[in-house]
C-alpha cells in the first residue's frame, strides 16, 4: 500500500478530507499528524479512528525530531500540509505563533521530504501545500479576479505567513527539485468548522438569539466553497496536478458578509435585527475572487454543491449537533 501523510488532519478541512479520502482510496494508508490546538478536535475523526489504514500521531510539525521519526517509520509517498494557524483576528494579536507554525513548520516538512525522497530522485512523490486566496490580498472592485500568476500582497499576519510558506515551498522546488503543488482556495464552509469562523459564529449566535457581529459596513465580499468540493479538488491536484504548479480553487459564488448573515438568519427563521455592525478590523480585505479556469480545464474539476443547498445543509448540521459545539 502507498502512504499519504496529512498534517493538521484534526482541523476542519483536514478531518473532512481524511474521512472522504479513506473511503474512496482503499490502497492507501493515511497518517495524520496534528498538534490538537484549540481548533483541532480528534472527535471529528471518530468515525474512522479504528480503521486499520489510519494512524494518528499527536505532535507539532515544528518538531524536527518528531517529523523525522514519522518519515522514517511510515515513509510517506505523498504529503498534504493542512496544518496552519488560520484565524486573521488571532494573527493580529499573536503574529509570532503564525510565523512559527505556518512558515517554520512548513519548512520542517519540506526538509524531511527532501531527505527522504531525494534518495530516489523524488520519483512518484508529491508535496501538496494547502494555501489560501488571502495571500493575493484584496480586490477593490467587482470585475477583477486573481490568477495563479497574480502578485502576492497579503494584508494580515496570517496571510503573510501563508504567503511566506508558499514562497518557501516554491523555493524548495526550484533549489532541490522537490515535486510540489500549491492549492489556493476560497472560503470554506461545512460541518466540523471551529466556532470562531464566520458561518459558525452566525449560526451559534442566532440559535441563542444573540446578536451577530459584522465588521465595518458588511459589504466585504467572500467567495464560498463547500468543504467536500474542496477535498475533491485537492485529490485531483494531488494525483493529476503538475509538480511546480499552483491551482486556484473557487466556485464563483460570491456573497457579502452582511448577505451571508442574512441568509443564515432566514434559514433559521430568526429576525434580521440580530445583525449588529461593529468596528472594522485592521487591514480588512474588501473582496476575494479567484479565476479557477486552470484547475477546471487541466484537472477536470468543478464544484458540485451550490451555495444555497450546501449552506442550508450546513446550518442544519450545526443545529442538529449541539454537543459537538459544547465540546
UniProtKB/TrEMBL annotation:
Any GO MF annotation of the entry: dTDP-glucose 4,6-dehydratase activity
InterPro entries: dTDP_Gluc_deHydtase (IPR005888), NAD(P)-bd_dom (IPR016040), NAD(P)-bd_dom_sf (IPR036291)
Pfam family name, one: GDP_Man_Dehyd
Species the sequence originates in: Anaerobacterium chartisolvens
Catalytic reaction equation(s): dTDP-alpha-D-glucose = dTDP-4-dehydro-6-deoxy-alpha-D-glucose + H2O
Record keywords: Lyase, NAD
Family that this chain belongs to: Belongs to the NAD(P)-dependent epimerase/dehydratase family. dTDP-glucose dehydratase subfamily.
Protein name: dTDP-glucose 4,6-dehydratase
Amino acid at each position: 500500500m502507498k502512504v499519504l501523510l496529512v498534517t493538521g488532519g484534526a482541523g476542519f478541512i483536514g478531518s473532512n478530507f481524511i474521512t472522504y479520502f479513506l473511503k474512496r482510496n482503499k490502497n492507501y494508508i493515511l497518517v495524520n499528524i496534528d498538534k490538537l490546538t484549540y481548533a483541532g478536535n480528534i472527535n471529528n475523526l471518530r468515525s474512522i479512528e479504528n480503521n486499520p489504514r489510519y494512524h494518528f500521531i499527536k505532535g507539532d510539525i515544528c518538531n524536527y525530531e518528531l517529523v523525522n521519526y514519522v518519515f522514517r517509520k511510515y515513509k510517506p509517498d505523498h504529503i498534504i500540509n493542512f496544518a496552519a494557524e488560520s484565524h486573521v483576528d488571532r494573527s493580529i494579536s499573536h503574529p509570532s505563533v503564525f510565523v512559527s507554525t505556518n512558515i517554520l513548520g512548513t519548512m520542517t516538512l519540506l526538509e524531511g521530504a527532501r531527505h527522504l525522497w531525494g534518495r530516489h530522485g523524488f520519483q512518484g512523490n508529491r508535496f501538496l501545500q494547502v494555501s489560501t486566496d488571502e495571500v493575493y490580498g484584496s480586490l477593490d472592485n467587482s470585475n477583477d479576479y486573481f490568477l495563479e500568476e497574480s502578485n502576492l500582497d497579503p494584508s494580515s499576519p496570517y496571510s503573510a505567513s501563508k504567503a511566506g510558506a508558499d514562497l518557501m515551498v516554491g523555493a524548495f522546488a526550484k533549489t532541490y527539485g522537490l515535486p510540489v503543488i500549491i492549492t489556493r482556495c476560497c472560503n470554506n464552509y461545512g460541518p466540523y468548522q471551529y466556532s470562531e469562523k464566520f458561518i459558525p459564529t452566525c449560526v451559534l449566535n442566532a440559535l441563542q438569539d444573540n446578536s451577530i457581529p459584522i465588521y465595518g459596513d458588511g459589504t466585504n465580499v467572500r467567495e464560498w466553497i463547500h468543504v467536500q468540493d474542496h477535498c475533491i479538488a485537492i485529490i485531483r491536484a494531488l494525483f493529476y496536478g503538475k509538480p511546480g504548479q499552483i491551482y486556484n480553487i473557487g466556485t464563483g459564488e460570491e456573497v457579502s458578509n452582511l448577505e451571508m448573515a442574512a441568509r443564515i438568519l432566514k434559514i433559521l427563521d430568526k429576525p434580521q435585527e440580530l445583525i449588529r455592525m461593529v468596528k472594522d478590523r485592521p487591514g480588512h480585505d474588501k473582496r476575494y475572487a479567484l479565476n479557477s479556469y486552470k484547475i477546471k480545464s487541466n484537472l477536470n474539476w468543478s464544484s458540485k454543491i451550490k451555495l444555497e443547498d450546501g449552506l442550508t445543509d450546513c446550518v442544519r448540521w450545526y443545529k442538529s449537533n449541539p454537543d459537538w459545539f459544547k465540546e
